Amino acid sequence: MNQTHLHLLITHLPIFGSILGGVVLTHALWTKSNQTKIAAYILFIIAACGAGIAYLTGEAAEETIENIQGISEKLIEKHEDFAMFALVSLIILGVASIVGLFLTLKKSPLTRTIAFIILFLSLTSFALVAWTGYLGGQIRHTEINNTTTSPQGDSGENEEED
Prior knowledge:
By secondary structure, the chain is mainly alpha-helical.
């Protein structure tokens, strides 16, 4: 297994971790269960670690595919640029989850407030990381892209043949 393979495998972790953690945290807030909050925070921390690994392996994945015919450098750059926003968002979510975990274990009166803040962060992070994944998918999965790319990758417009 090389870094490209690891990148493709690990990129799903922050996507599913952020939304699944949000569902678990919503359930925890509904049932007022501190154990369930702790489970959600652990999911968020794992998702944040996965985002870091995905970002760190992204460069190797780019080097593997950038010279393949039909790969758009423009799409790679869009994915790479947006990945930074998703990474920062998930790092903030992970750090906030560590704080939430600490406050929950200490039975702080701020436990419920921080849980709502973390829920908002998780939904924001999910949106960013899901869009990043969508952009990454367009690089090799042209069937999800509304446009066709030329072999040089310099055209992002539909070209019709007569």
